[in-house]
Design goal:
- The complex is a heterodimer of chains A (261) and B (316).
- Chain A is mainly alpha-helical.
- Helix content of chain A is 76%, strand content 0%.
- Chain A has one domain.
- In chain A, α1 runs antiparallel to α2.
- The longest helix of chain A is centred in the N-terminal third of the chain and has 44 residues.
- The two termini of chain A are 13 Å apart.
- Chain B has 316 residues and is α/β, with parallel strands linked by helices.
- Chain B has 2 domains: 214 residues, 3-Layer(aba) Sandwich (Rossmann fold), CATH 3.40.50.300; 62 residues, 2-Layer Sandwich (Alpha-Beta Plaits), CATH 3.30.70.
- The N terminus of chain B is likely disordered.
- The chains are: A mainly alpha (261), B alpha/beta (316).
């Protein structure tokens, strides 16, 4: 029988120390990362908003297709950044003993996950702010909506930041992490109601699409973007919080199993 | 770099008792007991796979013990490994430097994570860079450093919180002789400053030079413990003849030694003759042999390991 290592309380210093590490590292390479944080999603937004927007003349609840697609694309970008941070980047930190070194200081695996998720949220916010400001300039998002949309961005960042660990902690090699994008991110991106209303999908696909984690995020974000809410937005928000709350202990468990053996 | 030596009532800094670690059916650590006194440098000497790294990891909570007790400065590691990590500096086997950061940032962020204020972490990073002669590499990327510099940076990092205890897993494995000497000098200075050091190594020379006391380990067990001199006195012959033998002469030499019942071992082209009862073995018959050069050296920890385990330390 193994004597289990008890988890003492969470210290704010440890969490902010991990976050600070990521911020310092980001600032060294920001010129490169920013192309993905802002330029890439803006290119997609402009292409889809102007291009497909010309073909689509009518979409439920929005004045134009561009207005409809903007919150969806922003949440999609938030998802990609949060997922990438705690899958790909976290895997590299496992592989290069960055976490092991951190664990030789008085911090815990729980605090590592919190610091990383907090950074994933930060990245989700960066891309949200960048794209939202651009969309607001184009007139596809009004000023208050651009601020309000930060709320679902934080939620989506936390949810996918937590989910990424479930892959990183069990990945035998980086190629395995391709699955994060082929099996999770890309299908979610296209079937979460970002590009078209879920209601136009076949009846049997609809519930599946609603169960997908990004769908709830897009739904809440669209509520903010279009300025109309009903009870379904509350359910969606609760769904995100629940999923995150379920995945977090699993992420801690798997990462601890990987690092402490 | 003066440090206050932490110790408990019984006077020992590290106390390990009947420690076990099983991985499935394999006992990686199989009932280890030892203790380290304040200011002492204590070595775990053994080949790869002897269980040294596992012990080091258990000591700071990076690996849960299967059974047994570990106390560092009187703190029970099983109960509160966070408190142990607050006062222990750790140098892991693979440096664990952060490639996303500069040399200075590696130190600063480690110090901050370990609980120093930002101002103090910056100040301290400059101090240790100075001490380890890395000041001009402060802004370098980690991957630009040589192996020796990386190792010294990892040791420097463990000094960020001025710990009174340092646990070091193979401080100089893979380093060239010059870098190794440099690390040894710096470790000697830490010892002078009163830091208690537990290190693991499979270099007998390193153990001889650095350790006040050491354990010889194999297959998860401690085979014997003592000062390097005591160990050599106990287990090694006072003198060992070394024959450098050309390939053509190897057969003759083997036949000669076997014929006279002289025990010997071969490592590459080097034949070590340990002799019987500490007497100088009779090698007069080989004096004129073409391709054989004979020299004598004192017994060392390598001979001790061979005597206890029947194997070479370097076998791995």
């Amino acid at each position: 029988m193994n004597i289990s290592i008890p988890t003492p309380g969470i210290r704010r210093r440890s969490v902010s120390g991990i976050w600070l590490r990521h911020a310092v590292s980001f600032l060294r390479y920001w010129k490169f990362v920013i192309t993905w944080v802002i330029i890439e999603p803006v290119v997609v937004l402009v292409a889809v908003g102007l291009g497909i927007g010309k073909l689509v003349t009518e979409v439920e609840g929005a004045d134009s297709y561009a207005e409809f697609v903007t919150p969806g694309l922003i949440m999609g970008s938030a998802m990609f950044h949060a997922l990438f941070e705690t899958s790909w980047n976290a895997y590299n930190r496992i592989d290069n003993d960055v976490y092991e070194t951190a664990l030789t200081t008085p911090i815990t695996v729980t605090e590592i996950t919190l610091g990383d998720i907090l950074w994933a949220v930060t990245r989700a916010m960066m891309t949200t702010i960048g794209v939202a400001v651009f969309a607001a300039i184009l007139g596809w998002l009004n000023g208050w909506s651009a601020i309000g949309i930060l709320i679902p961005a934080v939620m989506v960042g936390a949810m996918f930041g937590t989910m990424g660990f479930l892959f990183a902690a069990v990945a035998p090699h980086t190629t395995f992490l391709t699955l994060v994008f082929t099996l999770v991110a890309t299908p979610l991106y296209f079937f979460s109601g970002a590009f078209f209303p879920i209601s136009i999908l076949p009846d049997w696909v609809e519930p599946i699409a609603w169960a997908m984690p990004l769908t709830a995020g897009v739904h809440v974000a669209r509520g903010f973007a279009l300025g109309s809410f009903d009870i379904t937005h509350l359910w969606a928000a609760i769904y995100i919080v629940l999923l995150t709350a379920i995945m977090w202990p699993a992420a801690i468990y798997l990462l601890r199993r990987r690092l402490i053996k | 770099m003066r440090n206050r030596a932490a110790h408990n009532a019984s006077g020992t800094v590290i106390e390990v008792e009947d420690l076990h670690k099983d991985y499935g059916d394999i006992a990686a650590v199989d009932g280890i007991t030892f203790s380290v006194d304040p200011g002492e440098t204590y070595g775990l000497l053994g080949p790869n796979g002897a269980g040294k790294t596992t012990i080091m990891r258990m000591l700071v909570g990076l690996s849960p013990a299967t059974s047994g007790t570990i106390a560092v400065a009187g703190i029970n590691v099983v109960k509160d490994n966070r408190a142990v990590r607050e006062l222990t500096g750790v140098v892991t086997q693979h440096d664990g430097l952060d490639g996303g950061l500069t040399v200075f940032q590696n130190l600063f962020l480690y110090g901050f994570l370990a609980g120093l204020s930002r101002a103090r972490a910056k100040e301290r990073a400059h101090e240790v860079l100075e001490f380890f002669g890395l000041r001009d590499r402060s802004k370098a990327n980690v991957y630009e450093l040589s192996g020796g510099m990386k190792r010294r940076l990892a040791i420097a990092r463990s000094m960020m919180t001025s710990p009174s205890v340092i646990v070091m897993d193979e401080p100089t494995t893979g380093l060239d002789p010059q870098s190794r000497n440099r690390v040894w000098e710096e470790l000697a200075e830490l010892k002078d400053a009163g830091v208690t050091v537990l290190l693991s190594t499979h270099y007998m020379e390193e153990a001889t030079i650095l350790c006040d006391r050491l354990s010889i380990m194999d297959h998860g067990k401690i085979l014997d413990e003592g000062t390097p001199d005591q160990m050599i006195e106990r287990h090694a012959p006072p003198e060992v003849a070394q024959l450098r033998v050309a390939p053509a002469a190897l057969r003759n030499v083997r036949e000669y030694l076997t014929g006279r019942n002289i025990t010997f071992r071969e490592v590459g082209a080097l034949v070590s003759v340990t002799g019987a009862n500490g007497d100088r073995p009779d090698l007069s018959g080989l004096a004129g042999e073409e391709g054989v050069r004979t020299s004598y050296r004192a017994g060392n920890l390598e001979d001790v390991f061979l005597a206890i385990t029947g194997r070479e330390l370097r076998d791995g």
